[in-house]
Specification:
- Strands 1-2-3-4-5-6-7-8 form an 8-stranded mixed sheet, with helices on one face.
- It has 8 helices and 8 strands; from the N terminus they run ββαβαβαβααβαβααβ.
- The protein is globular and about 45 Å long.
- The chain has one domain: Aldolase class I (TIM Barrel, Alpha-Beta Barrel), CATH 3.20.20.
- Helices cover 33% and strands 18% of the residues.
- It is an alpha/beta fold.
Length: 228
């Protein structure tokens, strides 16, 4: 597994656990507001696998878990063997995914290696290509979410509430999703790196914390486990 970034200790990336975060490169989406654009455009630096392995061994028993994020981890053919190595060291594992590869998620579930999943649902289905670029499709994402729901896996769904998503959009998304165990609305932050053509989009004013909480209350009529 190629690791192109690492946060050695995080209190926020794995709910209820102190974790390290490992970033893998490459993604099949191209969201204009991506905060890890260097992982998409090949400007990343690969971390020596021995450095990552040594770190994980030394921190085993001190950290609760490891978060595999990206990029999009499900694009990597050696995802499950890598999860096996981490699990053998005693870590709980959280997998972040855009949900576009439901068959890979099935395989991860069958392996029993992952303790928690976070799936991004980025826009109403009708706006997925507009927001995520290319051939992005909400269908597989919803399939992934339903697979997780049917498996009784521990997971959450997250939406970054970009300025381009209005109240009607968020209500539509809440209706498209099955009832979730946890639906997290994340506040938008302007990325440091973005395509020049997206300068106007990324510069739009984000919602305030109060407005985000108000939107969460509205959505909770449909998704009662919504938090912001």
């Amino acid at each position: 597994m190629i690791i192109a970034g690492m946060i050695k200790s995080s209190l926020i990336d794995y709910p209820g656990h102190v974790s390290c975060v490992l970033f893998v490169p490459g993604c099949n989406f191209n969201c204009f507001y991506c905060h890890n654009r260097s992982l998409l455009d090949s400007s990343y630096t690969i971390i020596d696998p021995r450095v990552v392995e040594d770190f994980l061994k030394k921190r085993a028993g001190l950290l609760d878990g490891a978060v595999i994020t990206g990029g999009e981890p499900t694009l990597h053919h050696d995802l499950i063997p890598y999860l096996e190595k981490i699990k053998a060291l005693g870590y709980k594992i959280k997998l972040d995914t855009n949900g576009s590869n439901p068959e890979v998620i099935k395989q991860v579930l069958q392996s029993g290696l992952c303790d928690y999943f976070a799936v991004d649902y980025k826009a109403p289905a009708a706006k997925y290509k507009e927001i995520c670029g290319g051939n992005a499709d909400a269908g597989p994402v919803l399939e992934t979410i339903n697979i997780l729901l049917g498996s009784n896996a521990d997971f959450e769904v997250r939406t970054t509430v970009i300025p381009q998503l209005g109240e009607d959009d968020l209500m539509q998304m809440a209706k498209e999703l099955p009832r979730l165990p946890r639906y997290m609305l994340n506040r938008y932050r302007r990325p440091e790196k973005y395509r020049p053509s997206d300068a106007k989009k990324v510069s739009q004013k984000p919602y305030t914390d109060d407005r985000l909480k108000e939107l969460a209350r509205l959505i909770s009529d449909i998704q009662p486990n919504t938090v912001a």
